[in-house]
Amino acid sequence: MSKKLKSSQFFKGAKPAQNSENTAQEKVPNTATNSNPVINQNLVIANPQSSQKSSAVVQPEQMSLTAHQHIQEYLKAANKAHIEKEDLNAVLRLSQHLRVFGLLSAVGYLNQSNAQENNETRKRTVPVWGLLLGQMLGKKNASNALERLELMETVVEMARQNPGEYMAAWRKSLILAEQWNFWARAYTKGE
User: Fold this and answer.
1) Helix crossing, 120-136 with 163-186: angle to 10°?
2) Of 72, 95, 100, which is closest to residue 181 (Cα–Cα)?
3) Of these four, 15, 23, 53, 71, which has the most CB atoms within 10 Å of its CB?
4) Rounded CA Rg of the chain
5) Whole-number Cα distances in Å, 126 to 81, 84, 121, 141, 163
6) pLDDT-derived band of residue 101, with 50, 70 and 90 as boundaries?
């Protein structure tokens, strides 16, 4: 059976006022008819199992204070009153390295066995990176080779055994890196 379309089945002319009012009401959430109004369409719901660990690890509201403390610890460990230009470059370099290569690569850089002895950049970079990454991961300082190796082993084990925790630590390092940059610039002596 073929169904014939009658011209009277299709609406002709302007829409009635009643339909436009209903349309407007559908666009705006009505709490009386909808018990769960949409507040933010970009809301990300965390996995309940991982949210307990990651919420304790990454707290953006505390990152500036933590980064400030890390920079203060570096100044104290280096016996300096302010951040020098080379130290600032090392902090900025760490930030870039974390964004491009990741946390595992950054701790790997600290332990390169093929590093040249007379490499000035590396001599300035390793102490800054070791201390900041060590502070972030709960180590007091990663200034000597043994402590840097332990730091790398900790991150490698974290990446293998608990990838979620590693990703949270990487996100934390990315947030901290911006704050490290800010505080390093703030403690740079004006010229």
Assistant:
1) 120
2) 95
3) 71
4) 28
5) 19, 15, 9, 12, 26
6) very high
b/e for 120-143, b at 16 or more Cβ within 10 A?
eebebbbbbbbbbbbbbbebebbe
Q: Residue type for 84, please?
A: E
pLDDT of 130 reads 87
Supply angle C-alpha 107, 161, 176, rounded to 5. Answer: 40
Q: Coil, strand, or helix at residue 188?
A: strand
Number of helices (H), then strands (E), belonging to the chain: the values are 8, 0
Percent share of the chain, pLDDT over 70? 63
Q: Which two tokens mark 118? A: 């007379």
Say how many residues make up the chain: 191
Q: How far apart are CA 95 and CA 116, in angstroms?
A: 23
For residues 67 and 59, the answer to whether their CB atoms sit within 8 Å is: no
Contact partners, residue 71, CB within 8 Å, separation at least 6: 83, 180, 183, 184, 187
Lowest mean pLDDT among 27-31, 142-146, 159-163: 27-31
